[in-house]
Amino acid sequence: MKISVERGVLLKAVSQAQSVVERRNTIPILANVLIEAEGSDVTFRATDLDIEVVDKAPAQVERAGATTVAATTLHEIVRKLPDGALITLSADSAAGRLSVEAGRSNFSLATLPKEDFPVMASSEYASNFSVPAAQLRRLFDKSKFAISTEETRYYLNGVYMHIAEGDDGTALRCVATDGHRLARIDSALPEGSADMPGVIVPRKTVGELRKLLDEDDMQIAVSVSETKVRFATPDITLTSKVIDGTFPDYTRVIPAGNTRKLEVDASDFAKAVDRVATVSSERSRAVKLQLDEDRLVLSVNAPDSGAAEEELAVAYADERLEIGFNAKYLLEIASQVDRENAVFMFNSSGDPTLMREGNDLSAVYVVMPMRV
Fold first, then answer.
1. What angle do CA 219, 225, 229 make, to 5 degrees?
2. For the stretch 125-162, what's the b/e string if a residue is b when 16 or more beta carbons lie within 10 angstroms of its beta carbon?
3. pLDDT for 170-186, tens place per residue?
4. With CB atoms 3.0 to 4.6 Å apart as the test, which of 5, 149, 275, 299 could cross-link to 309 if both were Cys?
């Protein structure tokens, strides 16, 4: 195999591949990227046995062929080569080496046989449809902060993507929760997705998928089966196993009877929470919200380090209320708001609080209070 590729093109392809590779693994081949050159393209394939990414890039192919090489090492070399350089990769299978040349730089890397590289079995997908990148980005970006990191409740370690009845009819919905907060995001139902089985997309896959969604006008081809999910652009295909488990009935957690309404400028609110939380050394320190007619007082009392208080002008016309929240959770939820105003719906100081963006019902957040 012998190919020449422009540095920028190679860096993009290799960085996507190396981020899938697990740093610590007991199977040496899993640290490698499979490079296959044919026609006028080269593909880079990497896997951790749960996720597989295949990145296709244009190249000058002198000799077709394939080899595998350490993904992280190749990425570091390409990253450090000068911008605009033409990089030549040539594999010598007899010697088990891949040479990387650019200008006066020359590297020789150890390779492993391509036959040892595990390729994820292709499965029959029950549902195939396409979604604009911007729509998919919104669904996952606004929900992923609530993914649980608790390994014992593994079925919460991802985003539950499914079809559901929303306020404006049937919708494609993403939900994530860790038991303390919940995010439920709806978007228009893509054509051909009505029969899609609900799947839990793992946290790592959500992170890798984000890299495919930067270009707003791109269409992402989505394929879903009971065990796998695939996201594809013309150049990159990301295939992942889904979490084998049942996502809990999240609808029971979303309060329906909260009547006390607070409307506040989302940006001012987030900044004020951040400021008062500064005095606390503990990340989970509770921030107390004291609500009175058209005013909100945020306060933190940390006996070991100090106290802080800040007042905000808000729209609130219900009876007086005092309620506490984990400062980190409040900040994360407030930072999801794209519109000017955040609307909080309270019931009492012990009940879950609902938050939405202005009058937009397609994004709903729930946060559990803390005792203060």
1. 45
2. bebebbbbbbbbbbbbebbbbbbbeeeeeeebbbbbbb
3. 999 999 999 999 999 99
4. 299
